[in-house]
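User: Fold this; tokens only.

Assistant: Input:
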Amino acid sequence: MTTALSVNLNKIAVLRNSRGGSEPSIELAAETVIAAGAHGITVHPRPDARHIRSDDVASLAAITRRRVEFNIEGNPFAPPRPGYPGLLALARLHRPDQITLVPDDDGQLTSDHGYQLEHDGARLAPVVQAFREIGCRVSLFVDVGADHFEIARRIGVDRVELYTGPYAEAHRQAGDTVNPVLGQYRDTAQAAARAGLAINAGHDLSQANLGDFLRAVPQVAEVSIGHALIGEALYDGLATTVRRYLNVIAQV
């Protein structure tokens, strides 16, 4: 199985918003990574519009349609407000291929934990059903060591996305810590697969650590990478960086 690469464009929007106006262009960034071979585009529109805005979602939906996967991440329970209609409303308007549900709050700097299915399953059930009725594949952000995956499958979840922040930190420190952590991810992925779920992964993955992760967790169908990829692209160029990620995946 070849792992798909979905490029998260949030950081392009951060740079644009820091100055105002329309540069750098989210649309041109999307076209560039698609031309370089990326399999999808990911965005995480937050209620405070700190990076991706609702109008970006509209333009990216048009660019990706019938070309590559469009994945929208977000908290389905964050209420609508001016400029942000809510995650479900965005999905109804723009029909992304995949919705990734993430339990972050408004003030959270970045996503740093997943759902606990034994506690969150009942609340998530009607939300998952609403997204499935639109035609979205539903992925659920979870921590390494998560369990009760049968609940996720029962309420209609298609995939889980493994939060890879702890792995990235262990890899950065090197030494003897990384292999036990990789073992935990492998066990979690296997448990999810036994429940009938496909596996995504994301957060702090980079060219330096992606290959080791995919070799240890070969079930991964898709990785979503933004922060490291955009940072590396500042030095090497966006298209070149995307092709280098694809080469890492191809060598697994």
